[in-house]
Recover the amino acids of this structure.
């Protein structure tokens, strides 16, 4: 089958999505790390159309801004107050540059709320439309055979199997309602046929809307060929109308992503409690333990282990590293490093190769050099720590004076004693020590031992004098 470059993909995203019961427009709800519309744009862009146009109306400024951010080359077209999918496509075509359809070609229509559609499916639809034998193909519609077709437009076929019309559920006769083949809402149109039919559509139906589906019957009446291509994988045409469907489709998208990662060489111990966004990359022999969620542009390199019970967003985990019961975002973990359990990595954390961030440690804006360790109960904020450094338990990088944040620099092989307060701005030189329990407010030269704490005094015989008769 040949495939000419589609002249345009029109993505319908003007509807309100009332059943989401949300202040957020439906198509902006996230699923596996992208908005619903983001998935639709990725599928549409995947067929490399000359033009990609998104039809907006409800919360148009928010949706338009999201389109600009997600796919800057995409056009945005406003639907006017006339309702219906037919009107929406008309507005989409009006949003194309003048003369865009002059040379003819194929126009694809998809929905902004159908997140699992794959570019391959759109490409196959366009190829089936393009490569059809016989009279020039006017419309090819992607259809699904559903056990419960309630609510969908039914595909009414002739005796010869060609498509005669699509009838909406609410406009259908009982006999038509018995048809289980439904319109997915995804089509390939001959551009000229579409452009000629849209202005002729009426709104004499139960909803009083301009139905795109009426283009099929019109095209037929004009002598065009209308065909249906059944989709084998029905998840790909399923739309989101409420949050129950949102969760259902998210779970399926996740199952598919995890399966692909497994087949590519990652061990996922419990796919049902592991969540991996669309943009996540995993190396070979990565192990994901139960309760792990990887979001955004997280990358886990070869042989690393993440989990159990770990959530990482935009984190790079180096080869062979281990990240246990950790919450992290915007961080880089070096090869062979260990993190957790119970660590909190905030943006700007960079842990060097073989380093350690241990239990109950929070880090932010902290570069921790190769082989350096922050093993227990510490806060490391706004710090540059050299190589081979040990930060004793319960150390705090006191980075905030109540008004501004300040940085602390620690030289290579320094030893920070337990319970040290490092009051920034501060520099501790290479190989320097601080005594446990010190409040360090001035720079420490390389090789020095800084002691900044009260001197211990033992009051002999105090207990016998002051607590006579107590168990002590
Ligand atoms: C539509 C089809 C139906 C098909 C079903 C598949 C029509 C008349 N009916 O019905 O045959 O089985 O999809 O899901 O086309 N939209 C706009 N502007 C509008 C109206 C809708 O952009 O004025 C967008 C919506 O945001 C949504 C999509 O088009 O993404 C479908 O609209 P919806 O109202 O849900 O159509 P259905 O009634 O489900
Ligand atoms: Ca719908």
């Amino acid at each position: 089958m040949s495939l000419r470059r589609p002249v345009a993909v029109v993505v319908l995203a003007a509807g309100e999505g009332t059943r989401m019961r949300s202040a957020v427009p439906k198509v902006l709800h996230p699923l596996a790390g992208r908005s619903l519309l983001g998935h639709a744009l990725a599928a549409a862009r995947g067929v490399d159309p000359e033009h990609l146009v998104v039809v907006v109306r409800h919360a148009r400024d928010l949706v338009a801004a999201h389109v600009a951010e997600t796919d800057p080359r995409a056009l945005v077209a406003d639907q006017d107050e006339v309702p219906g999918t037919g009107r929406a496509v008309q507005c989409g075509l009006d949003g194309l540059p003048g003369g865009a359809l002059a040379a003819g070609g194929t126009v694809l229509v998809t929905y902004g709320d159908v997140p699992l559609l794959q570019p391959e499916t759109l490409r196959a639809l366009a190829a089936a439309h393009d490569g059809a034998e016989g009279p020039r193909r006017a419309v090819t519609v992607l259809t699904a055979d559903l056990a419960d077709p309630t609510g969908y437009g039914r595909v009414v076929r002739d005796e010869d199997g060609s498509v005669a019309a699509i009838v909406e559920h609410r406009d259908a006769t009982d006999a038509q309602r018995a048809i289980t083949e439904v319109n997915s809402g995804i089509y390939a149109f001959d551009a000229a046929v579409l452009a000629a039919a849209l202005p002729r559509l009426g709104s004499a139906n139960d909803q009083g809307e301009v139905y795109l589906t009426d283009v099929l019957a019109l095209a037929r009446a004009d002598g065009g060929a209308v065909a249906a291509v059944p989709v084998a994988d029905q998840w790909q045409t399923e739309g989101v109308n409420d949050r129950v469907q949102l969760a259902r489709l998210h779970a399926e998208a996740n199952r598919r992503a995890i399966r692909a990662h497994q087949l590519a060489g990652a061990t996922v111990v419990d796919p049902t409690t592991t969540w991996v966004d669309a943009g996540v990359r995993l190396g070979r022999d990565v192990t994901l333990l139960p309760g792990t969620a990887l979001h955004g542009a997280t990358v886990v390199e070869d042989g690393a282990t993440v989990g159990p019970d770990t959530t990482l967003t935009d984190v790079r985990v180096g080869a062979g590293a281990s990240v246990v019961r950790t919450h992290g975002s915007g961080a880089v973990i070096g090869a062979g490093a260990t993190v957790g359990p119970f660590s909190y990595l905030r943006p700007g954390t960079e842990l060097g190769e073989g380093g350690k961030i241990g239990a109950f440690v929070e880090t932010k804006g902290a570069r921790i050099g190769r082989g350096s360790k922050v093993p227990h109960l510490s806060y490391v904020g706004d710090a540059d720590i050299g190589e081979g450094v040990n930060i004793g338990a319960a150390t705090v990088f006191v980075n905030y004076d109540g008004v501004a944040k300040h940085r602390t620099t620690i030289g290579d092989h320094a030893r920070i004693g337990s319970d040290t307060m490092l009051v920034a701005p501060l520099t501790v030189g290479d190989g320097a020590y601080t005594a446990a329990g010190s409040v360090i407010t001035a720079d420490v030269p390389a090789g020095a031992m800084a002691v900044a704490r009260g001197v211990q005094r033992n009051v002999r015989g105090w207990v016998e004098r002051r607590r006579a008769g107590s168990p002590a």
Notes: The two ends are 92 Å apart (CA to CA).
